[in-house]
Amino acid sequence: MKSSLRLRSLTASVGAVAIALLGMASSVNADNISPQEKKLARAAKKEGAVVIINPLFSNRTAKRMGPAFAKRYGLGSGFKFKNIRKGTGSTVATVRQEIKAGKFTIDVHLVSAPGFFYAAHKKGAFSKLDSAHWKDSIELVKSAGQYHNYPYVVTPLAYTFQPIWNSACPGMKDVKVTSYADVLKPGLKGKVISSDITKSFTYTNTVISLTENGIDMDSKWDTLKALNPIIEFRTEPKIQMVISCERPLDMWNLSGRVYQNVLKKPALAKTLRVGYFKEGQVMLGNQAAAVKGGPHPNAAKLLVEFLLTKAGADIFVEGEAIYSFRKGYKAPAAAAPYLLDLSKHKLLGLKDWVAAQRQFKKIRGAWAKRFK
């Protein structure tokens, strides 16, 4: 794998375009549907449901994605779309257990875990895809240096961890974050959160990438430990700590969590801040696959295909403020302000996304020695 991501061509993913929810629904119907999709849709309608497990899609996104998926393919109002959300490690553990037991409740697995997808594919765990839309993403996926293994594993989206803080909390008015030094200042003692590395593939891969790119994470952990942080791994509980001023700064969260809370309470736009790290932003591609043996095999393959379409991208980008790999894609206007202009940032990857998993025990152990 490449030592650093080449994602500047992904800048197209963060352009703004005026798009309301009604307009988005119209685009679902207007998109051309391929012969492959039509064939899968006929079988999926008979199956009547699909189950996806992932760590990312919020309830709001899931509530919009299910009807949009069913409407695009004429699956009927009775079609059931089930979204199961767990942490990155927990999604992998759940699917791995089902594969091992040979008993399945999951149809689609979406998560950033290249090592798992590589090993599971070798065991024949995924159904073969016949995609009409993967060609629209493969160029940027490759230039981004992301793991993929079509026709079994595709990579439809990505996100990156950024610093989030609440400027309205005591002592936070003048805080600005453009480097790791900014989140580790002595004045932030008792105000910070440490992400639980041991429970997340993406946190762990972020640490590995930063280490590979010359950042001494052991010294960062020592400094962070001295700030007496709260330990948490889910992004939603962490953003609530920031909003409530319980812990007004989180080193690693998603800008989409700010966006989602501003939608609920617009006044937060005046106080919640999103920074970046000049040392580099690690882009974390999320892989997707249809689990072989799942209860709804055709609906599974159709849902993976939906995630690769513009219609699908509009739903998850508008819902989560994350990045689509579709060439020439323009983000919905509501989410665009929360997405980085990737051409203006140093973007980091891993030398080998699959081999990186062999470093997990060491990397997590170094963090746990300070915080567990």
Outline:
With 372 residues, the protein is an alpha/beta fold. It has 2 domains: 13-159 and 284-340, Periplasmic binding protein-like II (D-Maltodextrin-Binding Protein, domain 2, 3-Layer(aba) Sandwich); 162-282 and 348-371, 3-Layer(aba) Sandwich (D-Maltodextrin-Binding Protein, domain 2), CATH 3.40.190.
Q: What would you report as the Rg, rounded to the nearest angstrom?
A: 20 Å
Low-confidence stretches: 1-30
Estimate what percentage of residues fall within beta strands. Answer: 15-25%
SS element count, helices: 13
Let me know the CATH homologous superfamily of the largest domain.
Periplasmic binding protein-like II
List keywords for this structure.
single chain; 372 residues; alpha/beta; D-Maltodextrin-Binding Protein, domain 2; 2 domains; 5-stranded mixed β-sheet; 39% helix; disordered N terminus
Please specify the SSE layout and strand pairing.
Layout: E1 16-17, H1 21-30, H2 35-47, E2 49-54, H3 59-73, E3 80-85, H4 88-101, E4 108-111, H5 114-122, H6 138-143, E5 154-159, E6 162-166, E7 192-195, H7 201-212, H8 217-226, E8 230-232, H9 235-244, E9 249-253, H10 255-264, E10 272-274, E11 281-282, E12 284-290, H11 297-308, H12 310-320, E13 323-324, E14 331-332, E15 347-348, H13 360-371
Parallel strand pairs: 1-14, 2-3, 2-4, 7-8, 7-9, 11-15
Antiparallel strand pairs: 4-12, 5-12, 5-13, 6-9, 6-10
Helix pairs in contact: 1-12, 2-11, 3-12, 8-13
